[in-house]
Design goal:
This protein is α/β, with parallel strands linked by helices. It contains nine helices and ten strands.
Length: 251
């Protein structure tokens, strides 16, 4: 992995396939380490940007549309991707990027428990939770104790992401996105784009619920992952990889 001020990269830039990974609130590009390593092993060049307000990046406008527009440089010179994965807040940002996708290249989009619809009460609840996380930074051991399925590496990266995001960013993200409603972005999807929504188990803290996902959109599929919490990329890498078309050698 190599890291710049705005993104992390895995694999060879000359690889024939490319993946773009978009993290969630109070996370960072490095938080994709597990998924990115597997993709790089499968022959992908993987890029994970740091969203505005994260990894010490500063901004003034934290609307989801602005977070997406900030990523436009990753699509210059007709740059396209075979796979795009967005988690939580990054899921809404990913949907905002759909108009930038190629109309000629097949793209697999995977949304991991995306934050699509939040009532004011739920949004206030999550805002307060994130603010407490920032005010009371926890160690990797703390995260592992609360989340036994997480590896030490993932727990360290979770702690790192929180430490590089301040309370002003969290407040502005919730303030600038009221009302929090992004299911309307599931529209005008290119016939070359296939979207899968992986929603976490409501009993394990899911943010996305199936009723948030339109049921009348072509090439859009959704499923609930029973027994899996919000941090899908930390708990079940295989489920994510199973949604990605991989080239296998013919026997």
């Amino acid at each position: 992995m190599s890291t710049s001020i705005s993104a992390s990269q895995w694999g060879s830039p000359t690889a024939s396939r490319r993946a773009l990974l978009i993290h969630g609130l109070t996370m960072s590009s490095q938080s994709w380490e597990g998924v990115a390593q597997l993709l790089a092993t499968e022959g992908f060049f993987v890029v994970a940007p740091n969203l505005l307000g994260h990894a010490w990046r500063r901004g003034t406008d934290y609307r989801v549309s602005t977070l997406a527009e900030d990523l436009r440089p990753y699509f210059v010179m007709d740059t396209s991707y075979d796979v795009i994965i967005g988690h939580s807040l990054g899921g809404a940002v990913t949907l905002s990027l759909l108009p930038l996708l190629s109309n000629t290249k097949e793209t697999t989009v995977i949304l991991l428990d995306p934050a699509l619809e939040l009532t004011k009460e739920i949004a206030d609840k999550y805002e307060n939770w994130f603010l407490k996380e920032i005010a009371n930074l926890r160690t990797a051991d703390d995260h592992m104790a609360e989340n036994p399925a997480w590896s030490r590496g993932d727990s360290m990266l979770r702690a790192l992401g929180i430490s590089m995001c301040d309370d002003t960013v969290v407040k502005r993200i919730f303030e600038h996105n009221r009302p929090w409603s992004f299911r309307g972005l599931f529209k005008n999807i290119s016939p070359q784009v296939n979207i899968t929504v992986l929603a976490s188990d409501p009993a394990f803290g899911a943010i996305c619920h199936l009723e948030h996902v339109p049921c009348d959109v072509a090439r859009l599929h959704a499923k609930v992952l029973i027994g899996i919490g919000h941090w899908i990329q930390y708990e079940s890498l295989n489920i994510i990889m199973n949604e990605i078309p991989l080239r296998r050698a013919k026997l």
